[in-house]
Amino acid sequence: MITVKLPQEAEKLLADMARASGRTIDQVAVEAILETIEDWQDARIAQERLKDDDGARIPLEEVIRKLELREAAERRKKPAAE
Hints:
The protein is mainly alpha-helical. It has one domain (8-76). It contains 3 helices and no strands. The chain is elongated and about 60 Å long.
């Protein structure tokens, strides 16, 4: 368990948000903290992946074309509905 001392304005905003959303102050605070931690973790993962970035890119049009071809091939494999 932790205790956090908030500035008065932040405490008021937190209480307002909790009341408006029908949740407790604790629920709103925990959710906000967890979202911040998840964002931080996502940023760390992105930074790690960027270290290995070779700069190669695939145009969106090519990705869409390949997906359409794959879907068409899968449709051809399925038996026709009777």
